[in-house]
Amino acid sequence: MAVAAETTSPEVPARPPEEPPALPADRFLNRELSWLDFNARVLELAEDTSLPLLERAKFLAIFAGNLDEFYMVRIAGLKRRQSTGLTVRSPDGLTIREQLARVTERTQELVHRHAVCFQQDVTPRLEAEAIRIVHWEDLAETQTRRLREYFRDQVFPVLTPLAVDPAHPFPYISGLSLNLAVVVRDPETGGPRFARLKVPNNVPRFVPVGAVDSEATFLPLEDLIAAHLPQLFPGLDVLDHHLFRVTRNADLEVEEDRDEDLLQALERELARRRFGPAVRLEVTETMDPQILDVLVSELEMSPQDVVTVPGLLDLSSLWALYDLDRPELKDEPFVPATHPRLSEGETPKSVFATLREGDVLVHHPYHSFATSVQRFIEQAAADPHVLAIKQTLYRTSGDSPIVNALISAAEAGKQVVVLVEIKARFDEQANITWARSLERAGCHVVYGLVGLKTHCKTALVVRRENGVLRRYVHIGTGNYNPKTARLYEDLGILTADPRVGADLTDLFNVLTGYSRQTAYRQLMVAPHGIRSGLVEKIRREARHAAEGRPAGIRFKVNSLVDERVIDALYEASRAGVPVELLIRGICALRPGVPGLSETIRVRSIVGRFLEHSRVMSFTNDGEPEFWLGSADLMHRNLDRRVEVLLRVCDDTAQRQLQAVFDDAMAPGVRCWELGPEGRWTRTGTRDSQARLMRLVTEHAD
Q1: Fold of 31-329
Q2: Which residues pair with 309 in a beta bridge?
Q3: Is 112 a catalytic residue?
Q4: CA 496 – CA 354 distance, rounded (Å)
């Protein structure tokens, strides 16, 4: 005891653990500029001479359509916030004014690249393949004679010149319409006058000059109209004309009141959408400065809102060229394969019998939507043992087999409950139409929730088997739309797991009734559970890494913007967790920053199919977790939407999801890598989508 007493050191107060250094203020990238970087990746595909020619024209059209929606929604939203007069900074520290200035500069740069690609590269190559876009002065007399008849019979009757003078106020300019600003002179007074002429959108933008077969020549509709302006202004001298296009705010602001019919509120707002404030003015390089001043003034815009476009305006109309029957100028056709567990040779199997044997992970468009998810709903509608079908619909197609199956089920006496999200942007009117069709057939229709969009992709089928009720479920990452299922990359689980069935039953009670449940067995559900659930799992990986146990994080999402999730990923990286992120679109995280995100890699794959699935993987000390569902990591998804993530427990499905990550993150894959300064760099040559098409086809064969 004496020896022990002599060797005992004086008691020293324990030192508190060191606090990790604060996260740097410049740790976020700007979301608007990051979105423009995504659209630049689309443009790079249009510039890629290794792609088939009409596929390049398709990407030119996609770039233009994307940019339209960006201005209609994101830039419109920034301008609306700016109009409030509040000083608001983005997470990267920029004021709204600074963001708008940078967006304008970057947009002008990309629009110029877009036009140069079309004019100087794609157009000459199209001409070499006998596909030509010509101007009026290029035509022979026999061609102009026929086109004058076409103008007289098909175009002239729908044109309405609108004068602008003291008796005629400046006319309303509809969003995304092409317009001619025309300057005429009265020979008697000698004074110039201004008129506006809308290029009709119900007449083909590219007018065929002669037969369209192995050769095709087109005249832009605005050229045809411009050549006939004297007929529209008889007795006046046409001095000049210039093309312009206006983009308006199309982001709905539905003032939702619990005491008001949500459908009526939305229909009222849809009527207002047409008259949203102008947010972008596109003009040609030859636009007269005086006319431009008139347009900017009358549209109540600023010079910063003007985008100058070399050549043709509105290249989203290039879809018309892509529709030409020229298969040699397009990707080889791909026919999705039926999932091997859902057929025996050429004979389709009962989806219910298959799911009783185990879960099925379907990967669209590689696996056929028609012979998996669609067949699941169609078999349920026709099965006399099925008692009820409950489903969420966010977006669907014009002639939807899913909706038709639900109507058939209701007419057959089954209980059919459908939540139709009538606030799905740009699909509002279509969804209202579908909802009313379902109601007329006897379905119970719910029009979304007050204050939230229901974005989850879920279907529940209740079937009586040997006197016992059994539940079958589909939960996916994509909409119940057979058309986009051939173009979008998505994942979905078909399962008869009773825990998942019980969860989805509880969720539908939340969506259709007054339940306030927020905790589930196999699901994470926003707006209450996904952000907190993911952050907790990210922190768990950080603890594993700090204690020397296996740790790792992999996310595949469309967008990563949420600051709390990003900060959690930074903390995990500081703890040594390997983090691999596959982000198609917006990414506000900076990877590879010393002391902050050294273990984080970010990739983007943009290709033939739109990468759309959302999957999260956690190593979890050797007991991996996989989650799959509808949620992107953005504020709107985590705070203002009903989203669902499903824990995937089936061993085979887990291996398949692991393979999706392994393939996408493998060396040599054609992708874009994000650097710490926010710059995306294209790398690799192996097309991961082409490999999946080949593997699925070989498996099917």
Answers
A1: polyphosphate kinase like (3.30.1840)
A2: 284
A3: no
A4: 9
- Architecture per CATH, domain 340-511, reads as 2-Layer Sandwich (3.30)
* Catalytic option among 114, 339, 363, 455: 455
Determine what percent of the chain falls in helix, strand and coil, rounding each to the nearest 5: 40, 25, 35
3-state secondary structure of 679: coil
* Predicted local confidence at residue 35, as pLDDT: 97
Residue 191's Cα: distance from chain center in Å?
49
Going 360 to 364 to 367 to 371, the CA torsion angle's sign is positive
Residues tagged in the binding site annotation: 66, 395, 425, 488, 584, 612
Residue 607 contacts residue 46 (beta carbons within 8 Å)? no
Do β-strands 216-220 and 237-248 pair in parallel, antiparallel, or remain unpaired? unpaired
What is d(CA 593, CA 611) in angstroms, rounded to the nearest whole number?
26
429 vs 450: CA distance, rounded Å: 18
Q: What pLDDT score does 289 carry?
A: 94
Concatenate the DSSP letters of all residues of 232-288 into one string: HSTTSEEEEEEEEEEEE---------TTS-HHHHHHHHHHHHTTPPEEEEEEETT--
- Angle (CA) 76 105 604, round 5°: 80
Please check whether residue 279 is in contact with residue 249, taking contact to mean a CB–CB distance below 8 angstroms: yes
State the pLDDT at residue 269: 65
Binding residues for Mg(2+): 395, 425
Domain boundaries along the sequence of the chain: 31-329, 340-511, 524-700
**Tens of pLDDT, residues 304-314:** 999 999 999 99
Check if the beta carbon of residue 283 is closer than 8 Å to that of residue 309.
yes
- Fold of the CATH domain 524-700: Endonuclease; Chain A (3.30.870)
Q: Could you read off the pLDDT of 231-268 as tens digits, one per residue?
A: 999 999 999 999 999 999 987 665 555 445 666 666 66
The answer to whether 31-329 and 340-511 have equal CATH topology is no
Q: Is 437 left (phi over 0), alpha (psi -120 to 50) or beta?
A: alpha
β partners of residue 490: 364
- pTM of the prediction? 0.92
Assign residue 432 a region: left if phi > 0, alpha if psi is -120 to 50, beta otherwise? alpha
DSSP 8-state secondary structure symbol assigned to residue 17: P
Around Cβ 203, how many Cβ atoms within 10 Å?
16
Q: Point out the residues of the chain with pLDDT beneath 70.
A: 1-20, 252-273, 700-701
Contact in structure between 130 and 211 (CB atoms under 8 Å): no
Positions at the binding site for ATP: 66, 488, 584, 612
Query: Sign (positive/negative) of CA torsion 33, 34, 39, 40?
Result: positive
Q: Using CA atoms, how far apart are residues 4 and 18, in angstroms rounded to an integer?
A: 32
* pLDDT value, residue 2: 38
Per the structure block, which two tokens stand in for 213? 């077969």
Q: Rg of the chain over CA atoms, in angstroms?
A: 29
- Separation of alpha carbons 528 and 642, rounded Å: 9
Contact 522, 497 (CB under 8 A): yes
